[in-house]
Amino acid sequence: MQLTIIIPTCNRSVESLTRAIDSVINQHLSDFEIIIIDDSPRLNNKLKSLIVDKYSSYNLYYYINDGMHGVANARNLGVELAKGQYVTFLDDDDMYLPGRLVNMLSEMENKQNIFVSSGRFYEIGDFAEIHNVPYQYIGKIKLEDIKYANDIDIGFMVTRSDFLRIGGFDPSFTNLEDWDFVIRMLKEGNGYKLGRLDYAVNIDPNRERVSTNDSKGYRELAQKYQQEFGLKWYSVMLATADRLEGNLSLIKTIRYVFLSGVKLPFIIYLKYKFQFLKKYLAR
Fold it and tell me: What is the pTM of this model?
């Protein structure tokens, strides 16, 4: 088996999950399998039967996660069950555009990078609205490129053996466990990002995202890599977490600037206050 696509799902509608699966089928791959990991707290046999019956002509396997729950554990379980030489991931509310996996596989088979990714964009209402993601890196990706902001979506591709060797996703993270894993991959070697916008991230406010609580993820990353990345990075991460939580005060900002010796926390503060002012004036 060449490739395994892992889709964790939790209380998702049939329409959303089938949209994600169909986007994999439409890649027109010849040697692949799809693994669905149902991480829902309650077993939904109806959903499982619908999906298994609908895709009975494909190598699709539907597993119930009866162990530790959480998206990191669900993805790790998918990799353990995978038969593919390469593995990649798809959130159950997102989708691939045609050609994504074929092009990523081609780059992976060059064996020059530890992982391959590509560009992404945001969509709302099944493409009623499309929003660009600015400042995306293209080409070689190094650790320094993603220290302050993760530019790699969850749909990266890596060999199954490398994923297991690096240790998989850290289930202790509340969120941003994918960023943590990307950091650990880039300690092993460079990544590569194709110049294609072919991962559609659904940000519809009426749909619950697979991953939320980014501020907690920033704090967890800050604690884990404080010694390695230094005080400047640590202060910026905490300032970002405070901004996301809506409590980045001027006093906190001055403290972060003093600790780090750089102005980045103050720039984050000004952006936060400007956004707050825009919301206030829009009332």
Answer: 0.89
